[in-house]
Amino acid sequence: MPRLLATQSHVVHGYVGNKAATFPLQCLGWDVDCCNSVQFSNHTGYGMDKVFGNITEQHHLDQLLSGLFNNFPKEYNAMLSGYLPNKDSVRCMGTNYKRFKMANKDSIWLMDPVMGDEGVLYVSEDVIPEYRALALSEDSKVDIITPNQFELEILYDKKINSMDELKLALLHLHKTIPIIVVTSCNSKIFDDQEYIYCIASMKGKEPIVYRVPLIDSYFTGVGDLFSALLVDKVFSLLTGKSNQEFAQQVNAVLNIIQRVLHLTKSMGPKNIKSKIGSALDMKEMELRIIEARDLFTECNGGDENFIHSRL
């Protein structure tokens, strides 16, 4: 049974961060160890006045991660990192994950550089140089990143307004990162507002464009679920446990995500679109992770072919 270490947020109620990633990975046969970067009552979409809990201080996070390394230095086949609230937590995670990676050379590290979306930062600005150092340094140990376009632009340090600029950004980051999956791109680049566009790029190969129908609702935890499913697929690919190519692996992940979102929406009140800050709406639209348990283990994830073109 492969073992994964996940360092990201935790909520007591609902499904984001480690709560969105752990159960699906367990369904897929992973033994998951979780290190919580924050511990909140619920996610922040409920409104900041309805969020209770605390951030894991840097020295506590370091105690946990360094303690794990000292006790179990060669335990992990994969590492997953997600939401980290400040520069100290990003630096702490990076330092310890590098140690794990050096001791487990065949392991893979998926880093979701959670910083914001649609031009808005969710974290302190001081995390930006820390993420750039982890992703772009010559000794980077990161194997996969899953930014949205805004986060890709932050790492690249340039705006992206066209497909040519998107290609240049991917080429730049591929100097140090083998696999890049841009989870959502500005639809204006593709002149189509009815779809979400995802880009999957493996170093040395032509990037693949996926066109996924937009679901008219607001969901949280989708990126965390996506990263968890992707790390499983890539691990299967790199270890020869799957005969699917990379393009099909990402397509399978997108299929599962779409089915989970449709299931979530179908189980909520009719005509609800979920408004940020509305506790009732947020509660009704929490991802139906448990109800979707049979979807995670389907070999191909579904029948939809979202592959649209090559970039």
From TrEMBL:
Keywords on this record? Answer: ATP-binding, Kinase, Nucleotide-binding, Transferase
- Any one annotated GO CC term: peroxisome
Q: Supply the EC number(s).
A: 2.7.1.35
Q: Which Pfam families match?
A: Phos_pyr_kin (PF08543)
Task: Look up the record and give one Gene Ontology term from the biological process aspect.
Answer: pyridoxal 5'-phosphate salvage
Annotated ranges, domain Pyridoxamine kinase/Phosphomethylpyrimidine kinase = 77-231
Give any GO molecular function from the UniProt entry.
Answer: pyridoxal kinase activity
For whether the record's keyword set contains Kinase, the answer is yes
Enzyme class comes to: transferase
Which InterPro entries does the entry link to? PM/HMP-P_kinase-1, PyrdxlKinase, Ribokinase-like
Reply yes or no: does the keyword ATP-binding apply.
yes
Family to which this protein belongs: Belongs to the pyridoxine kinase family.
Record's protein name: pyridoxal kinase
